[in-house]
Amino acid sequence: MRSLQFTTESSSDGMTGRDFLLGDIPGVLWSPDPAGAPAPLVLMGHGGGAHKKHRAMVGRAHLLVKDCGFHAAVLDAPGHGDRPRTALDERDIAALRTAQAAGEPESPVVVPYNARLAEQAVPEYRALLDALRELPEIGAEGPVGYVGMGLGMAIGVPLVAAEPRITAAVFGMAWPDALFDAARRISVPVEFDVQWDDERVPRESALALFDAFASKEKTLHANAGTHVAWPLFEAESATRFFARHLGGQVTPTA
Amino acid sequence: MRSLQFTTESSSDGMTGRDFLLGDIPGVLWSPDPAGAPAPLVLMGHGGGAHKKHRAMVGRAHLLVKDCGFHAAVLDAPGHGDRPRTALDERDIAALRTAQAAGEPESPVVVPYNARLAEQAVPEYRALLDALRELPEIGAEGPVGYVGMGLGMAIGVPLVAAEPRITAAVFGMAWPDALFDAARRISVPVEFDVQWDDERVPRESALALFDAFASKEKTLHANAGTHVAWPLFEAESATRFFARHLGGQVTPTA
What we know:
Two copies of one chain form a homodimer. By secondary structure, the first copy, chain A, is α/β, with parallel strands linked by helices. Chain A has helices spanning 55-68, 87-101, 107-132, 151-162, 180-184, 203-212, 233-246; strands spanning 4-12, 15-22, 25-32, 41-45, 71-75, 144-149, 166-172, 190-195, 218-223.
């Protein structure tokens, strides 16, 4: 088992952020300040090209910690943030830049690249869950959710399919091609964000993936607009989804 | 212009309900108690076979009035609630019961039936808007929304297409067949509820109608489940949608 070691800590305005190393993998745990009784945990996965402290992660952590009293944790994905890139990473990123510059389809590069990262990241997130559940403020039995868009979804779908301790998940904005088998093994409540006019991820395949989730309770949120036009109010919707399924009430702070 | 006459009034727990007659059409206006500065108005349309005080209407009014400080108003649809049925209504309802009992498709009956009721109801709702905007607690310039499912959507889509004073709308759960032309004329923000496994309204035609709205900002909420399994949390989502677009904040009461 990888050891969890907290490195730096900072608190402000009702939220504590603790950087940690899980073995040699950097991550962050955001928690309510002061800590109260054990509270639900939401694992987060950042998007491709981003990192653990990207504003999307900090923003979601704010909503989850301050509005719900939950904990939120994220790891740098392999080859992202403070983690070294391998030669394979460099090769895939170069191929992606080349495809984008040439206006060629990204999916032949992105799909296997993300699947490779996910294969590595899934056991890392499971080890993170082992370690975080040893903390008294989270506890061994508390509810756990997962949220990830893009690369965070490419990691999250196989993670949630494999991990029975995760009981609610929010996904969105990833190429579905490599995710159908895992989606069919997911039966926990899912909220799935799609951009209706996504110029990168084809609408039909996104709808087919939503259909593939075995979850009895699943909600598709399709918003007009391109890939990057994903609206921020969906982060608030995801927060309410976790409050519904992990327990608790949303009390908006501002 | 039809005159608006309040008949009975009752208040409880921060909300006043006033029954009224608009000419000879019965309706209800729910308002914050005590009344404050002029506040946004949401017009509501009830579902087929229901009426102005159906629990779906009272429930939405509670959310809009008590959580947002808005007004909410609804009319009995033609041939519904306290309004007389015509011979045509009786004929259509009998045909619908026959089709349902025989397990035959409902849409050949429901689509023209609802279109006929909508043709009558649209000018009624426009007259209601004229009358309500003369009330000081609503005002001539305030924001107006519309929400309706089923029959309420069959009325609401042509209403919102025709009525520039309505600047945000929530629809769902109606047969789309007769609504495409009107949907293409709607450019205000729309939230559209679909049941992914609806055994009555075909998924493909519901998705095509969502595509048809000309709105730059539109969101599809597709939930797993059959027609009647529409989840109540969508009423809360609609409330937040109106708070976003008509102005104001949601403060959940319980």
